Amino acid sequence: ERYDEARDNWPMKGKIILAQYNEDIDAVCVYQAFNDEIADYAVANQRFTGCARYSTSRMTWIKTNFLWMMFRCGWGMKKNQNRVLAIWLRKEVFERYLEQAREKGSKPKGGDNVRLQWDPDHYINGKPHLSRRAIQLGLKNVSTFSDGSDI
User: Fold this and answer.
1) Is the pLDDT at 2 greater than 70, yes or no?
2) How many angstroms separate the CA atoms of 146 and 125, rounded?
3) Higher pLDDT residue, 1 or 139?
4) What gap in Å lies between CA 88 and CA 122, rounded to an integer?
5) d(CA 131, CA 106)
6) Given this model, what pLDDT does residue 29 score?
7) Given a cut of 70, is residue 151 above it in pLDDT?
8) Which of 135, 141, 103, 106 lies closest to 121, judged by CA?
9) What residues does 14 pair with on adjacent strands?
């Protein structure tokens, strides 16, 4: 579906999850920015664990919105955020992350390993969408993400 056709069907306001979904592999595409060493290792090995520069104890934020990811990493110009990876998460995993996620200030739901944050959605020209929010998920110590099991 073309962007301009899809856009016409999107809700104009509220907290919305807009994501690329591949039904052939039953997966949702999320984006994350990394440095060259982590990105090269992840692409070659299809996991993050094993890369000396990757820390499972550091919160890593994944986003379903490519433009928002590009904006946050300075269009690939920020230090240690110069490579944006498209990561296909199994849909059941994405849904599990949503169930486990907690928003800032809310009570922990067990492990407190998945954080949920709503940020301004962005138009294709990079300007913020003032009435629609896009999701990002913070993952910390999520071993099944780091070791590639969720991918």
Assistant:
1) yes
2) 32
3) 139
4) 21
5) 23
6) 98
7) yes
8) 135
9) 132
Whole-model pTM? 0.87
Residues composing the chain: 151
Q: Return the HEC string of the chain.
A: CCHHHHHCCCCCCEEECCCCEECCCCEEEEEEEECHHHHHHHHHHCCCCCCCCCCCCCCEEEECCHHHHHHHCCCCCCCCCCEEEEEEEEHHHHHHHHHHCEECCCCCCCCCCEEEEEEEEECCCCCEEEEEEEEEEEECCCHHHHCCCCC
Please name which of 133, 109, 121, 119 lies closest in space to residue 15, comparing C-alpha atoms: 133
Q: Are 75 and 28 in contact (CB under 8 A)?
A: no
pLDDT in tens, 76-126: 999 999 999 999 999 999 999 999 998 776 665 556 689 999 988 888 788
Contact 34, 42 (CB under 8 A): yes
**What is the C-alpha radius of gyration for the chain, rounded to an integer number of angstroms?**
15
Cα(17)–Cα(96) distance, integer angstroms: 15
